[in-house]
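Recall the central idea of this unit: under ordinary conditions, the amino acid sequence of a chain determines the structure it adopts. In this exercise we apply that idea directly, starting from the sequence alone.
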Amino acid sequence: MKNVALVFAGGTGQRMNTKTRPKQFLELHGKPIIIYTLEQFENNEHIDGIVVACLQDWIPFLEKSIDKFGLEKVVAVVPGGLTGQDSIGLGLQAIAKHFDGDSVVLIHDGVRPLISQETIEDCLAMAAEKGSAITVVPAIETIIKEDDGRIVDIIDRQTCKMAKAPQCFILDEILDAHKQAAAEGRNDFIDSASLMRHYGHDLYVVEGTMENIKITTPSDYYVFRAYVDLQESSEIFGL
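Accordingly, the structure predicted from this sequence is:
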C-alpha cells in the first residue's frame, strides 16, 4: 500500500482580492504558498508521491518552483477543472497511472500550508485501518440554522465538528465514487467527504489542529505569516 498526496490548487482566489496572481502562488519570504504546502508532504517519510491539480496557465510557474525548491516526490502536475470536484477527479486519474488501486490518497488544499506532520501521520494510520480519514476540529462558535433571516434552531456545538483537510480514502473507492457522480451528472459536492458519504462510504474522523487554516482572505495570509515567522524565531532563538 502506497500513500499519495493529491493537492488541488485550481482556485482563482477571488476572495483574496489579489490583482497579480492566484492566492496559492502568493509568496512569503520568496516562496509561494503552494510550495509551503507541498513541502509538508515532501518531508514526510511515509508519503510516496504527490500529484498536483493546478490552474492550467500557472503550470509552468509551478513546475519551475518545484524544481527551484527541490521537491522530488511530485510525480505529476495536471490541469485543474472548473470546480474543486473536477480538479480532484483529474488528479485521481493521474494518480491511478502511477499507483495501485489500494493506495491511500490524502486530498489536501494547496492553500493549507500549516498542516502538521502529526496530522498527516494520524490520517495515514486511520485510512489504513478504516479506509477513510477526515480531518476535523471542534466547533468553537455557536452554530445556528436560519430560514429567511430568522433563526429556527441553535445546534449544540458539542455534537459538531468542522471538516478540514486532508480527507483520505482508498484510491479505487474514491475513483469509483467520482465515476458514479459523473454518470449521474452530479458536479455539486462541496468536498470529497460529502461525495463519499453520498455514495454510502463510512467516514472516520481524525482530530486536527486549529492552525491548519485555509488561506482564503488577506487576514488568513497575515495569520500564516505570523505562524511562519514565529516558527523561524523559535528555531533561531530556541524559544
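The longest strand covers residues 161-170.
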